Amino acid sequence: MQVTINPSPVEKAVRWLVPPSALAALSAFLYISPAGVFGKLDAVGYAVCHRIASRSFHIHDHQLPLCARCTGEFMAAALTLLFQIGFRGRRSRLPSRPIVAMLIVFAAAFIIDGSNSYLYLLKQTSESAFAGIPNLYIPNNTLRLLTGSGMGIALAAVLFPIINQTLWLEPDPRPALEWKQFLAMSILVLVADLLVLTGLPVFLYPAAVLSVLGVLALFVMVFGMLWIIIMHQDNTFNRVVDFWLPTLAGLSMCFMLITGIDLLRFTLTGTWGGFPGILG
After folding, report:
1. How far apart (Å, rounded) are the C-alpha atoms in residues 91 and 148?
2. What pLDDT shows up at residue 257?
């Protein structure tokens, strides 16, 4: 049975505004983004990723909506969330310390490879200032994809139990991840990465869609959770259908943010591609 909380008049008014706000935000995004399905996917990636062509995978002459690192990160996050939703239900305890240690290793690899890659980029674009700083190794898209995927697993593995702790009236107190599931999930993500690395369009198209869905899912979940906390609805839900309004609120805020960033970036750069003048 769902806990009933009598909302204040202000909260009632805000709730009535959510559906039209979501429709307006989505409509604005569809209006300002480039034409076609791939144009819409690119517009989502444009809000969170540099989209440098040489650091991205391509389907023929069209680069994926996200760079190699972000493709790995958000595709892995989407797969991890789907895996946990399908097999872990309402489990709300953070993983055990050894698994958390592995997630920290994944995050550290992401930071190290990202820092090394960024330093390499600076040396290419500002040789006089950074030429003397050595790189640990020559960065490449394979490492970007793999380390990005590790970060995606870490983000989703931590976010999922926190969401369950916030949502449910009776969350499952067991760990959201145990070793068997963690290994299965990691293998699933690794297989997805290997398929992307084949460069075949039959695998790159799903990767493009899945990575964009990963961006949207993370934004909607975080903003939806923020809505629940602000509206004092935490730990009041017992059925999935009961939190349609927080989900809609999260979707509204998600597209407001993406549309705002897109408009700002396009105004500054004049292009839907990567940052001008950066070869990567």
Report:
1. 25
2. 97
Return the beta strands (E) in 69-206 as ranges. Answer: 91-93, 172-175
Return the domain boundaries, the chain. 38-269
* pLDDT tens-digit series, residues 32-76: 999 999 999 999 999 999 999 989 999 998 999 999 999 999 999
Name residues of the chain where pLDDT drops below 50. 1-3, 279-280
What are the phi and psi torsion angles at 117 (to 5°)? -65, -40
Are the beta carbons of 134 and 58 closer than 8 angstroms? no
pLDDT at position 176 is: 92
Residue type, 37: V
List CB contacts of 201: < 8 A, sequence separation 6 or more. Answer: 59, 60
Q: Quick one: CA dihedral 258, 263, 264, 265, positive or negative?
A: positive
In the three-class reduction of DSSP (H, G, I as helix; E, B as strand; rest coil), residue 46 is classed as helix
At 155 the three-state DSSP class reads helix
The helices-and-strands tally (H runs, E runs) of the chain is: 9, 4
Q: Report d(CA 116, CA 22) in Å as an integer.
A: 40
Phi/psi at 93 (nearest 5 deg)?
-90, 140
DSSP assignment letter at 55? G
Contact 35, 41 (CB under 8 A): no
Cβ pair 178, 106 in contact under 8 A:
no
- Dihedral sign, CA of 132, 137, 142, 145? negative
